[in-house]
Specification:
By secondary structure, this protein is mainly α. The protein contains 16 helices and three strands. It is globular.
Length: about 300
């Protein structure tokens, strides 16, 4: 066991948040749902959406039996609604190909729509207790500071982990699979609560005495690597969200005139409608009407060809 493992595991045992997807009775499906929802979304926003989702669809077959539009409606204002479409598609694959059971191997998990390397490793680790390097933003930051002595990984902020980062994470994994899975979530929690991106609480860190970054005087990150702040007001993303909000509340079809009334820029609205249709988030209907996918009228209307 490395000098980091026991202090971090003991800290996690004392300070871990009580989150439902970590509960002893959490199912692989509930872990998968949490991983979809937690992508780029704070825990505080996920908790009520997660509870409502699993109350409605406690297993993948239930979700697969409903149209994709219901998944989009239930997703509400959680953001990045393509996640809802992909989770709905994943539920269909789980139901049809895996007899309704979320697969346990990373290879099979990666066959599911919307599941990449990180999500596959996270579900295999947290739902099935396997030994995999689980590298989210928090883990990458903690390990980079702890071992390499720099504020954040090179190219972080949406980039995939480098091969060197993966090797480092794998080298620190405990050998016993279930302990390795607990280590992975413990490092993730340490990054979320203590070794944060800004204002890290080094005085509360269980491995502060071993941290190369702290020993080096907490050198600042390269300013050129910082991601610019993203505005939201007036963007295509806000326009798309406004359209979806109308369709989610409509529970039926909506005329184009109603959508014209919610957005002042006709060209931006047209661009949003085209993009939403291309992403499978809305269904254009004859007569200039729109609906969520799977609405009775939308289900019988010709759909745009998938490129």
């Amino acid at each position: 066991m490395s000098p980091y493992q026991r202090p971090v595991l003991d800290w996690y045992a004392a300070h871990a948040r009580d989150l439902p997807w970590r509960a002893p009775g959490a199912t692989p499906w509930s872990v998968l749902v949490s991983e979809f929802m937690l992508q780029q979304t704070p825990v505080s926003r996920v908790l009520p959406a997660y509870a409502a989702w699993l109350a409605r669809w406690p297993e993948p077959a239930r979700l697969a039996a409903d149209p994709a539009g219901e998944a989009i409606r239930q997703w509400g204002r959680l953001g990045y609604p393509r996640r809802a479409v992909r989770l709905h598609a994943a539920s269909g694959v789980i139901t049809d190909r895996y007899a309704g059971i979320v697969p346990s191997s990373v290879t099979e998990l990666r066959t599911l729509p919307g599941v990449g390397g990180y999500t596959a490793a996270a579900v295999a680790s947290f739902a099935y207790g396997q030994r995999h390097a689980v590298l989210d933003t928090n883990v990458r930051r903690v390990l980079t500071r702890l071992v390499r002595g720099v504020a954040r990984p090179a190219g972080s902020g949406g980039s995939a982990p480098s091969a060197a980062e993966v090797r480092l994470a794998e080298s620190l994994l405990p050998s016993e699979p279930r302990v390795a899975a607990r280590w992975s979530v413990a490092v993730m929690e340490l990054g979320a609560l203590v070794c944060t991106a800004t204002a890290p609480r080094c005085d509360q860190c269980p491995v502060a005495n071993s941290c190369a970054w702290l020993s080096a005087g907490r050198p600042a990150a390269d300013a050129t690597a910082k991601r610019p702040a993203q505005r939201y007001t007036g963007t295509d993303r806000q326009c798309r969200g406004a359209v979806l909000a109308v369709l989610r509340s409509a529970h039926g079809t909506v005329p184009r005139s109603r959508l014209d009334a919610i957005w002042p820029d006709p060209e931006q609205l047209a661009r949003a409608l085209t993009g939403l249709a291309g992403d499978g988030l809305i269904a254009p209907l004859p007569g200039g009407r729109y609906a969520l996918p799977g609405t009775t009228a939308a289900a019988t209307a010709p759909q745009p060809a998938t490129p």
